[in-house]
Amino acid sequence: MRLLPAAMLVSALAAAVLAAGCAQTPPPPVGLLDVTSRPAERALQGGIRAYEDGQYPEAEKQLNLALTTGLVSPRDRAAAHKHLAFIYCTSSRTSDCEAAFRAARQADPAFALNKSEQGHPAWGPVYKRVQP
Questions:
Q1: What is the CATH number of the domain that holds 60?
Q2: How many angstroms from the chain centroid is the CA of residue 53?
Q3: What is this structure's pTM?
Q4: 3-state DSSP: the chain helix, strand, coil percent, rounded to 5?
């Protein structure tokens, strides 16, 4: 009769070991250097930097490169489209601006401009017009 509890204990331990072996370890965190080593993310970073420096033709080139190279994150794709929309709106390319805002929303359904961006005279009205 003593053998039965011992066998149950061994079975329980074996099941626990097997279950632990099936547990998935989470992937290691992705660091900034990992992300910036990717061509698409590097192009996005360069495009945003060029935009902030007022170099709009270079920004447009880099942002389009980021999108065609394959940004992984939906938020990154939305950010690229958003900055392209800003460039298009400020250069009187309204239909391109509308399309870029739609693409940003398609890339990331949670995409939204902040209050100050929504109030911008060049792209604010276009953004509001294409909102679902």
A1: 1.25.40
A2: 22
A3: 0.75
A4: 70, 0, 30
